[in-house]
Amino acid sequence: MKEIQVGLIGFGTVGTGVVKILLEKASLLQSLVGAPLKLKWIADLDLNRDRGIPISKGLFVNKAEDIINDPDISIVIELIGGLEPARSFILKALEKGKHVVTANKALLAHKGGEIFQKAEEFKMDIGFEASVCGGIPVILALQQGLVANEIESILGIFNGTSNYILTRMTEEGLPYSEALKEAQQRGYAEADPTLDVEGMDTVHKLTILMHLAYGSPLNPEAVFVEGITRIGALDIAFAREFGYSIKLLAICRKEGDLLEARVHPTMISKGHMLASVLGAYNALFIKGDSVGDILLYGQGAGMMPTGSAVVSDLVNIGRNINKGITQRVPRNPANKEKGLAFKPFSGVIGRYYFRFSALDRPGVLSTIAGILGTNKISVASVIQKGREVEGSVPIVMMTHEARESAVQKAIQEIDRLPVITDRTVIIRVED
Q1: Which of 118, 183, 295, 320 could form an SS bridge with 189, CB 3.0 to 4.6 Å?
Q2: Pick the catalytic residue: 105, 205, 247, 254?
Q3: What is the model's pTM?
């Protein structure tokens, strides 16, 4: 029984989880693959840090090229993240006739077209289950489990950091800054949380899923994005009064020949399944024309959940190697959809929540309502609370359906009024 040799580039948190699983479940994995999966080399810049697992120092190499150039290695695992040198390592590995497993969502979202083309050219497999939502098998679901469906929509909570922050703001009434600090102390947020809280991490994941579901180009710039940094405790409280929860949602819908794609804070009904996804958990709500609604839920990050996804790719590729086949499962089952274009965000129609900060003067409410009416934005309900600071009061409105372009035009005009003391908070509503 010939063993399948594996090289690991990047021995950080996820890499440690992968090695731990390979060591502790070697017999199980061998029975599943039909051959042993042997970890031959580990490349990392820090070879001395204790990872808490028994690993021979003889496995360590300083250079990723030592793994890529080793003729005995069949699968290269890339877990260093970032665009470079990860991109170069993966391309070189494919050119050397090695299969690749990666968790690098940013790289695939920005450079995936080049990488996938190289894999097809050299007839190699790419495993990337761990790139989207950690341990949740959504890549497998779209590539295999849902192939009998046209995917009508994908809604998801893809970022545990943002979801943890919004959960703490909702449960404890914490301001954003305190909730972020707590997330950092617990290890849910990086020292620089920008990618998470500004929504780009979610955009990268949505870009990959849209490519799988619709064959759309890997183009994160086509996705509208807005983060959670302007959500305040007041917005959380008002949302509760209206019967909603606030989540950072990834939203994709197919409308004829167009794809609507956006990431932003969203009010969803408390009765919706995604509203009950709390803490650092992730979830995807997918609608297929045959299967209907399905919910995938679980841990979207972390050493063991993400390591689990990496190992699942190793097993699948190992089985292919053992059978002498490659590219058994098409990367994108929906090739027929390649003509889809992205819908301009300005054309999106939906309901809106506005929170205006205004001086406490007569006629302010009617002035705001007049500007909204001029732009064909109909108000469904209004809440005006008592004084805040120095005479400024919050005025909250929920609208009927309106067009995004009209909303932006109206809000720009309203924010120029001398009685408005701060930028208006806009939260889109999903019913």
Answers
A1: 183
A2: 205
A3: 0.95
